[in-house]
Specification:
Blueprint: H1 2-9, H2 24-34, E1 46-51, H3 54-74, H4 79-95, E2 98-104, H5 115-142, E3 146-150, H6 152-155, H7 157-164, E4 171-179, H8 193-196
Helix pairs in contact: 2-5, 3-4, 3-7
């Protein structure tokens, strides 16, 4: 049991990867393990768009960069700062051996006539999808891979959806960059339990 806790605590957010390709069977195993995450009503609202080809990466990087550029201009950043951020975003997409766009499909969720319960149902779908994403990261870690979770698609969902020609009901939520680690970051500080837990 202690070994399992150590394993869970050893996962890190990895942003730099070796150029080695991740074998297809490994990617399949990671995705299959992700589907064993818990979900509200066992609806399993997570969907995965997996990108490994450079052509699709380049297309996605440029499409998202256009939206990102527009948003950064609205923030009144300098062109130098904007260019640096766009280059970092493009490099992250183009250099990751595997990209997984985590999407949410709510077509199987319950429907309510009042906004309060309907919002709760939507929140359950978001939480369930996020749990699938966490399981995906842990599965990648179990394979000796590194990964990082980012929320870029939340800021440009229509562009991601159109660029990847996703099914109509798939709502982009997050992107995971996965590959063999080219870095070994130290563990970030964790808040002590007395600051985040309440025992009654």
């Amino acid at each position: 049991m202690d070994d399992f806790h150590t394993f869970l605590r050893s996962r890190r957010s990895i942003r730099r990867f070796k150029p080695n390709a991740v074998p297809d069977p490994v990617v399949q195993r990671i995705l299959e393990t992700a589907t064993f995450a818990p979900s509200a009503h066992n609806d399993q609202p997570w969907r995965f768009a997996v990108i490994t080809t450079i052509e699709v990466k380049l297309r996605l990087a440029e499409a998202m960069a256009a939206d990102f550029h527009r948003d950064l201009e609205r923030d009144s950043l300098s062109e130098t700062d904007i260019a640096a951020r766009l280059e970092r975003s493009r490099r992250r997409i183009n250099e990751a051996p595997v990209i997984v766009i985590l999407c949410m499909d709510t077509t199987g969720m319950d429907s309510y006539p009042d906004p309060k319960r309907q919002q709760a149902e939507m929140t359950m779908a978001v939480q369930s999808t996020a749990l699938g994403g966490l399981q995906l990261l842990l599965a990648a870690h179990a394979e000796g891979l590194g990964g990082v979770w980012t929320c870029g698609p939340l800021f440009t969902p229509e562009t991601v959806h159109a660029t990847l020609e996703l099914p109509a009901s798939w709502q982009p939520q997050a992107v995971f960059f996965i590959g063999y680690p080219a870095e070994s970051p130290a563990m970030p500080a964790r808040k002590p339990l007395e600051q985040i837990a309440l025992f009654k």
